[in-house]
UniProtKB/TrEMBL annotation:
Cofactor field: Zn(2+)
InterPro entries to which the protein is assigned, alphabetical: FPG_N, H2TH_FPG, Ribosomal_uS13-like_H2TH, Znf_DNA_glyclase/AP_lyase, Znf_FPG/IleRS
Domain of life of the native organism: Bacteria
GO molecular function ontology, one term from the record: DNA-(apurinic or apyrimidinic site) endonuclease activity
Name of this protein: Formamidopyrimidine-DNA glycosylase
This protein's UniProt keywords: DNA damage, DNA repair, DNA-binding, Glycosidase, Hydrolase, Lyase, Metal-binding, Multifunctional enzyme, Zinc, Zinc-finger
Organism, as annotated: Microbacterium esteraromaticum
Length: 317
């Protein structure tokens, strides 16, 4: 169905990606816990051509704190998106985009790269397209090289008509990066305030709010000092609004840095430590059994909605 069709546009709503091809054929992809896009070739980002030698996605970081702008900051997985996003180089490399933690190594000069494992979908560019004007000086030949994207293990990979795509989008909760954040806030408040469901489950319900995952869920509840089992309808309206506004703030930080950074007021040295280690980026997430950073109470771990929830029984009473 997609063979030979040219990609027209791509957009995301929360964790769902929608890609339009010629003749109004839409591809919907949801990576879920195990899905991943593996990229090979030359990657465009921020109006530059980049050869990506790390993984693009939630765990890359850019080290964008102004006080650290002259430093190259690697995290403990060896990731540094300063060298993988926006660097003006043209070598062929691999990059993986997923919620997992391991990237792919350079596969050499073979093109297109061999299909490895259970590839659900492959998107491949014309190997010798004419470059956009902004890239006319890139490369000795004046041409932009090819890019390949292989999709593995997604929760959803389906083709839709425009009407089906719009219907899917309508079922999703508000996303601060899509539409008016103020309107999104009102939708979020209306929905949460009438639900008897625990707030910890509501924040993970993509029909209530789009994009919040397990890390942000735990961190937002701690930052709000909110007991995670509180029914949505029992949460004060102003606190519901503050949850949404905190999500807007944290998401903007995530977009800017490429990291799920949820701690505030860090010094330059503390920021570097947080960029270098996931263990220093969060208040409670992945800290079960460790002392709370605020009150020293042991961080609790429980399963709720088939996902792990980390929280402080003292701060979040």
């Amino acid at each position: 169905m997609l063979d030979g069709r040219e990609l027209q546009q791509a957009m995301a709503i929360g964790k769902q990606m929608f890609v339009e091809f010629e003749d109004a054929v839409w591809l919907r992809v949801h990576l879920g816990l195990y899905g991943a896009w593996d990229f090979a070739g030359e990657i465009f980002a921020d109006a530059t051509i980049a050869s990506a030698n790390g993984r693009m996605g939630q765990t890359n970081q850019r080290g964008t704190d102004p006080a650290l702008s002259d430093d190259v900051v690697f995290d403990d997985a060896g990731e540094n998106s300063l060298t993988s996003i926006g660097a003006p180089r043209t070598s062929r490399v691999h990059v993986r985009m997923s919620e997992q933690t391991k990237g792919l190594a350079d596969d050499g000069e073979e093109w297109p790269p061999p299909v490895v494992g259970q590839v659900r979908l492959r998107l491949l560019t014309d190997p010798t397209p004419s470059p956009p004007a902004a890239f006319a000086s890139v490369g000795a030949s004046g041409r932009v090289g090819p890019t390949c994207a292989d999709l593995r293990g997604p929760t959803a990979c389906v083709l839709q008509t425009t009407d089906e795509m719009l219907a899917t989008a309508a079922r999703l909760g508000p996303d601060p990066l899509v539409g008016d954040p103020a309107e999104g806030e009102e939708r979020f408040v209306r929905t949460v305030s009438r639900k008897p469901t625990p707030i910890a489950l509501l924040l993970m319900d993509q029909a209530v709010v789009s994009g919040i995952g397990n890390v942000y869920r735990a961190e937002m509840l701690f930052r709000a000092r909110l007991e995670p089992h509180t029914p949505g309808r029992d949460v004060p309206e102003e606190l519901i609004r503050e949850l949404w506004r905190d999500w807007v703030r944290l998401l903007s930080i995530g977009v800017e840095t490429g990291q799920m950074m949820t701690m505030d007021g860090l010094s330059a040295d503390e920021y570097r430590a947080a960029m270098a280690s996931r263990d220093d980026r969060h208040w409670v997430y992945h800290r079960a059994g460790l002392p709370c950073r605020v009150c020293a109470t042991e961080i609790a771990l429980e399963e709720i909605g088939a996902r792990k929830l980390y929280w402080c029984p003292s701060c979040q009473r």
